[in-house]
Amino acid sequence: MALLEIENLVVEFQTASGPFRAVDGVSLKVHEGEVLAIVGESGSGKSVSMLAAMGLLPWTAKVTADKLAFNGRDLLKMPASDRRKIVGKDIAMIFQEPIASLNPCFTVGFQIEEVLRIHMGLDRAARRKRAIELFEAVGIPDPAERLGHFPHQMSGGQCQRVMIAIALACNPKLLIADEPTTALDVTIQKQILDLLMKLQQEFRMGLIMITHNMGVVAETADRVIVQYKGRKIEEADVLSLFESPKSNYTRALLSALPENATGDRLPTISELFNEQQMLEGAAR
């Protein structure tokens, strides 16, 4: 049984000019111990799909699906109180821009202990002990001292490690990493990716990696879903995708990689294929 199973997910937002469909019929599955990458340019609906699955979109968003299940339980039909018990505990998410995601008014220790209090019911001493263990696990030096620091007192890489620690606090079955290396320098990016993969293998978590970086996909994923304008264009195992992409859009993404450059400049995606060509043959 799949950890997360989505069939025909549609997400619409109301705008001044009428409804806007941000996600259009996306289907996917992810299993225990599997790394699924969702790749596509900004605005392709990657993050919105996962926020919809977790129930974290604003109430103005209209979310429908033929199936939206976690561990066999229907997320759309269960009471909101039951869904809140799952999100943050069994399903966790590492959000983009860690400094923006952490609350600047509270210490990082308070923010990780809050998760442990709400979902695990631990007392103060047990929460502190677990928080120190988690900071050690994600490679934060002097963890006991760092618990008392505010986000602005830590670097971008350290804040990202705090976000990972918060996400892992309750030993989730499924971890969603939304552009986990955005705004980090190359050295820190490598450290964060290595850390995520080490923890994923250690805890046998299902991992969904949302990214626009095909290099990250090649390094981390078992399977890949390619999205464009809210639609799933292609799905394949990572080797097949790189060696023999089926869709024009995937070929355009790969052609825009620096290592595939054949001239003096990289082509843009729109120079390679027009929009209709990229949508033709989209996987459903």
From TrEMBL:
ABC transporter domain boundaries: 4-254
Identification of the protein by name: ATP-binding cassette domain-containing protein
KW Transmembrane (keyword) present: no
Known role: Probably part of a binding-protein-dependent transport system y4tOPQRS for a peptide. Probably responsible for energy coupling to the transport system.
Topology relative to the membrane: Peripheral membrane protein
Family: Belongs to the ABC transporter superfamily.
Alphabetical keyword list: Amino-acid transport, ATP-binding, Cell membrane, Membrane, Nucleotide-binding, Transport
Biological processes per GO annotation: amino acid transport; transmembrane transport
Naturally occurring in which organism (per UniProt): Rhizobium meliloti
